Amino acid sequence: MTRVVKKPDVRKNEILDAAQDFFFRKGYESTTIQDILDKLSIAKGTFYYYFKSKDELLDALVEKTTDQMMSQFATIMDSEQNAIKKFNSLIRAGAAFKRTNIALFSVFLKVLYRDENILMRTRMFRRIVKKTAPLYGHIIRQGVSERLFHTLDPDEMAEMIIRLGQHLNEKICELILDTTRTPEQLCTIMERKTRLYERVVERILGAPRESIEVFIADDFRAMVQYLSDRVRGATNQEEA
Question: What is the pTM for the complete model shown?
Fold first, then answer.
């Protein structure tokens, strides 16, 4: 068989795409490196040239997905919206991206929030802070100049808000992974937590009350239902 030589970026993305496909269909734990080698007809050495392990492969997939999500934000940042609308739009765009790629995020949810993967989760969060903090800082400075926000040190406030949002995300993920609650119960708890997040962010920014609104009930319920079903399905398979 003739050996096919491809550019490094092309080959690396092929491996990532194949891994993503297997993670969807078989789950992260059930997917083997050999599955990917067989699908792409590549040697083991080719795989290890790009990735040292399956965990590193997942980490690269998270980074690729984060970069794709960031590209969605450019239109918002370039828009003529005021700072409050930009802030709300930015968070909603992130949620919409997760909803569009919900199958992939269900894989991330089940893998990243295991205790043994805390370092991987920490790396992912640091990457998100590094990429998104400048965007939030820019919006906060705009809001201060428009007299919509009344706060000090936009860059510090941006990082604080992102960390607060990450704390909220972790609580939501913990709830979804808790199979003792129904999707309806999860939605009620999550809505309360998200509304609290909105009010706290308003105080941090010195923004008008009820101006920060990132919770969209119908979209949220649909996403929770899907993720909850996937988690319960995986749990039932493991128990069987």
Answer: 0.78
